[in-house]
Design brief:
Blueprint: E1 3-7, H1 17-25, E2 29-35, H2 47-66, E3 71-75, H3 78-89, E4 93-97, H4 102-117, E5 121-125, H5 147-156, H6 196-201, H7 206-227, H8 240-244, H9 250-258, H10 264-282, H11 305-313, H12 319-331, H13 336-349, H14 354-364, H15 372-381, H16 396-403, H17 408-413, H18 429-446
Parallel strand pairs: 1-2, 1-4, 2-3, 4-5
Helix pairs in contact: 3-4, 9-10, 12-13, 13-15, 14-15
Flavin-adenine dinucleotide binds near residues 228, 273, 339, 367 and 376.
């Protein structure tokens, strides 16, 4: 009886414990991916994420085929679709790597017990996080709400396990099943085709992810500590979409980094990813609800749609914000420092609720991640875990002077700001900053 490997956020062959378990079981292996836009609570993917998913699935399908395996694509609510695939294939086992979001966990738990009731082996594995959220605890046995002690506790336990090798051959021949056609899922934009900049910037799929990891470690890690905050320096790993889709596992990143000298700071950034997931696991409403409830008292003024649109399009008249928002629109990516500045400008100068910004990033980022995105928005807004104090409001002009000293980044993305007649900011930075601080008084009173 065949084994099914249910791929989700782990679109890779190397260091994939679920795939490894299926191969080791010794029966034919069927890869399955379910496009689930129906299960209750599942957040539909944004446009840029759908674009990435298409490329990553095409790559996974080809790689499985090269080794004798196959990838079956089906659409619908995951639980019934997986059960139906088990019946169609007369499968005896289903393996997957665990997910940590609230609705995803509910689906997986229900499925595991219903499969077992039917006598089907159902097993899950740790593949997407170095430290599963329930394994890192405070002395008092609770979860962490501050990053530094979280990361200290996580890294003082047993070291992350070594990555598993990639299976060379997969016996999938006798297990052909009906599959939908990837093109029928319409994950790629057509009219209009806005993905030109994404195609120029990225190559989804496991081989490109592994290449980028090697290249980063050999060429860029040396300058990471010094230059990682400069958006024009190209000093960061660009691994975020690859980690988001699991084209490379965090265990592989971890082990290859510790074998290279001087990776401590880089690993601690991976630690922020772990902490964001730790936070989401314990607070599944992270994308919709203030983690600190006193922020519910924040008096958001009525939305000014033209200002929101100016921000989205990169037409705020503030150089670093405009450059970042245009980089995002064109490439599906924005440098971390600029994400912080652009987010702060939306929340603390335009006084727009962070959830609107989070939604825009969700739709436009290729690395849009159910934990990292809302976690970081709440961090910037001040309402989140271990957040920046509200009253510390980024000054986007000083940030540009500090981190884009020679204007290279602004020249690339918003050059009119360096012309003789640069655009004027759509709002007064000082006035709006003061208005934000006044509004924050309501939060202080509610605390
Ligand atoms: P590197 O500096 O090379 O870092 C290595 C890896 O560490 C990243 O790939 C990422 O997985 C992780 N990491 C680094 N910084 C953070 C962080 N602050 N929080 C969590 N993980 C981190 N990151 C996402 O992956 N998805 C998102 O949807 C996302 N939304 C964000 C929204 C806002 C408002 C802000 C301020 C940050 C957001 N980030 C998000 C975090 C960060 O900006 C990106 O992870 C980083 O810019 C990716 O580039 P890199 O891979 O070159 O990073």
């Amino acid at each position: 009886s065949p084994s099914i490997v249910w791929f989700r956020d782990d679109l890779r062959l190397a260091d994939n414990p679920a795939l490894r378990a299926a191969v080791d079981r010794g029966e034919p292996v069927i890869g399955l991916y379910v496009l689930d836009e129906e299960s209750p609570g599942i957040r539909p993917l944004g446009g840029a994420a759908r674009w990435w998913l298409h490329g990553s699935l095409a790559s996974l399908r080809d790689r499985l085929a090269e080794r004798g395996g196959a990838l079956v694509l089906r659409r619908g609510a995951a639980e019934p679709v997986v059960r139906e695939t088990v019946r169609d294939a007369s499968a005896g086992a289903v393996f997957w790597n665990r997910r940590y979001g609230g609705p995803e966990r509910e689906i997986d738990t229900a499925l595991k017990s219903s499969l077992r009731d039917d006598g089907v082996v159902a097993r899950s594995f740790a593949g997407s996080l170095l430290f599963e959220p329930w394994t890192v605890k405070t002395g008092g046995g609770t979860h962490f709400s501050v990053y530094t002690p979280f990361w200290r506790a996580a890294t003082h336990g047993p070291a992350p396990r070594a990555p598993l090798p990639e299976p060379r051959e997969i016996d999938g021949a006798s297990a052909a099943l009906d599959s939908e056609d990837l093109d029928d899922w319409h994950l790629l934009p057509t009219r209009p085709d806005w993905a030109g900049g994404l195609r120029e910037t990225w190559e989804p799929g496991e081989p490109a992810a592994r290449r980028r990891l090697r290249e980063f470690l050999s060429e860029d890690l040396d300058s990471y500590d010094r230059a990682r905050d400069e958006p024009a320096a190209g000093a960061t790993s660009l691994l975020s979409p690859r980690l988001r889709w699991g084209e490379v596992s965090p265990f592989t990143v971890w082990h290859e980094t510790v074998q290279t000298e001087g990776g401590g700071k880089f690993l601690s950034e991976l630690g922020w990813r772990e902490f964001a997931w730790h936070t989401l696991f314990h607070f599944p409403e992270l994308a919709t609800t203030n983690l600190r409830p006193e922020f519910d008292a924040f008096p958001w003024p009525r939305l000014h749609p033209t200002q929101l649109e100016a921000w989205q399009k990169g037409r705020t008249g503030v150089a670093l914000v405009d450059a970042g928002m245009r980089e995002l629109w064109r490439t599906g990516y924005m440098h971390n420092r600029v994400r912080m500045v652009a987010a702060s400008f939306l929340v603390k100068n335009l006084l727009v609720d962070w959830r609107r910004g989070e939604q825009w990033f969700w739709d436009t980022l290729v690395d849009a991640d159910a934990a990292n995105n809302p976690f970081n928005w709440q961090w910037v807004a001040g309402s989140g875990a271990d957040a920046a104090p509200y009253f510390r409001i980024f000054n986007p002009e000083l940030q540009a002077k500090k981190f884009d000293r020679d204007g290279r980044y602004v020249r690339e993305w918003a050059p009119e700001h360096l012309s003789e007649h640069p655009p004027e900011p759509i709002i007064d930075l000082r006035e709006t900053r003061n208005a934000a601080l006044d509004a924050y008084e309501h939060v202080k009173r509610a605390a």
